Known about the structure:
single chain, alpha/beta, TIM Barrel, 6-stranded parallel β-sheet, two-stranded parallel sheet, about 40% helix, binds zinc ion
Amino acid sequence: MHHIPSLVPKIFHQMVWHFSREQNNIYLTFDDGPVPGVTDFVLEELGLRNMKATFFMVGDNVRKFPDLARKVVEEGHGLGNHTFSHMNGFQNSAERYLNDIACCQREIIRATGENPLIFRPPYGKITKKQFQLTAKKYKLIMWDVISGDYDQHQSPQKCLKKSIKYSQNGSIVLFHDQQKTEAVIRAVLPEYLDYIKRSGFQTCIL
Ligand SMILES: [Zn+2]
């Protein structure tokens, strides 16, 4: 369940993979939105249970759907930067990478007025140089529970079971609010959130 991207150990330890195991806080995160339909569904399900989450947004989606980005903030959720074009760090120079992050940040500020200082690299792929430059401004947030909601070979039931099994105090849980994961999110999220609530976890934003 611990999905470890191929990272240099030195930067691996400077990223945030989870929080204190002593407190019953859990950190739900949704990557790649905002996307009409699926993001609305996630907001609805969180709202029904009075839960909070953090959305790592793709700048191009914020540009296309600024009202939806604003709705996320208005409902009290956290925001993070996930690059403008969902850029793969391993396939791009540090300069291009930093520029893509800056573009995303501009769209987020324009749409929401927020200036988030957290970043998650798409695919978990970031070079040492890109990391060092990005870390000057942003805290890099990874995850310790990967739902696998994007995995076409995994049934929604398996996704739910695994997400429940590995969620613990301080966990950062990775979901996606995008088109490819919409069916799985609709099938899995309500039951997963009910489990989190039943188990006494507090949902926190980053
Ligand atoms: Zn992503």
